[in-house]
Every structure is written in structure tokens, then in C-alpha cells.
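Amino acid chain:
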Amino acid sequence: MTGPTLRVLDSLDAVARTAAQWVHDRAWDAANARGRFTLALSGGNTPRALYRRMADGPRLPWDRTVFCFGDERNVPPDNPESNSRMAKETLTGQPFVNHSSVYRIRGELPAEEAAADYEQTLRKLFPGTATFPRFDLILLGMGPDGHTASLFPHSAALADRTRWVASNWVEKFRTHRITMTFPVLNAAAEVLFLVAGEDKAWALKEVLKGSAPVSEIPARGVVPTSGKVTFLVDRAAAAGLGQST
């Protein structure tokens, strides 16, 4: 693969607008070429803006889109912290979405059980996969500490190279998260990072220009083996990169 592509945009709204067009184009390409579009959603405030754009924007091949989730909190689906709840409120709960093709992580289960359950769900969605599933597009955010999905600094799941989905203890929050592992993220045809806000500037610089190990900056571990990765970021997040475009 080539290195990551960076696009710096003026604002969160511009990031969401550009990302919505990005998803639209990939969705139709995949649906026309293979009959379906497999998309892994992310949680967080930046993706929230994207999902609203997707719901309001040009029509996607909704009947051929498969929605999955890159990670989830260990909470029930009606909890305010739930990624699937946020996605449902902004996008996947819309009447034009094929709700039978929305596959949430069952965060109400004990974390290990939820991870195993979701891995089985993915194995059914990608039958015959000998190694790891190849999503058409995985959406990722990034935290101020450089975490992505629920792969946090110095957490155990960073080292997982066999499971598709892992239960990951996050010490800073004293809780488990359920997350796709690096091998799944890196098997994707395309990964799209959405990064906005000045609180992300340090982490973005570390990911793109730093040399810290993945154990300290997990987002550095997203390096698709035969796909591409793009960062859509706003100017506030790009402030530490020393470029104006």
C-alpha cells in the first residue's frame, strides 16, 4: 500500500460534507461491482456530523448497504454512551435504511461474550473468509490520546492478531470496550479517518509525523495491507502539521 493521504478542510462541517460524498461514491462503486457495500461505522462527535449528512444527502444504495460497527461501549443499546444508539438516531434508524442489514454489537452482554458474539456475526457476513474480512470501507475517529476504535494506549487488544473482535479493558475509564482488532482494520479495502478539533492536533501530528510505538499511539497501527487510508481533518486538528492545505 501507499502511505496515508491527508486532506485538510476548513471545518467540521466541511469534513462531514466531504466524507459524505466519499461514502456515497464508494457505496455505489461497491454495490455496482459486487452487489453490496460493507461499511463499518465509528462512534464519536465527528462521525455524528457525517451520519446526518449521509441521511440528508444524495441517495445511497440503502438496500445493498451492510452496516457494522468498529467498536462499542459495554452498555445497552438505549444507553446515551452507545455507538449504535447514536448511529440509529442519526442514520441507521431512518425509514429508508434496510434495518435487517444493520448489525450492532450487543454491548449489553458481558464484554467477552459480546466480542465473541460479534465475531460470529461477522463470520456469517463474510462466509468463507480464511483470514480476516475485507470491508469496503471502515470509518474511524481518533481520540486526543491517539486511540482509534476502542484500541487504547497500552491496552491488551493492541497485540491481538487472531481474533476479529476483542474485549478490551480500558484502564483510564475502568471499563471494557468491544472493538475490531488491527488485523480486521488493516484488511479493509479503504479506511477513512475523520478528525476534528484542536484537542486532536497533538495526536494527529504523532500519527502522521511521529515515531512513537503503536502501544503509545494506537492509530499508527492502522496500516492496511492491500488497501488505502485517508485522513479528512479540519484546520484545528491539523494545526500541528505545519501545512496550510
In short: The chain has one domain: 5-241. The mean pLDDT is 96. Residues 12-34 form the longest helix (23 residues).
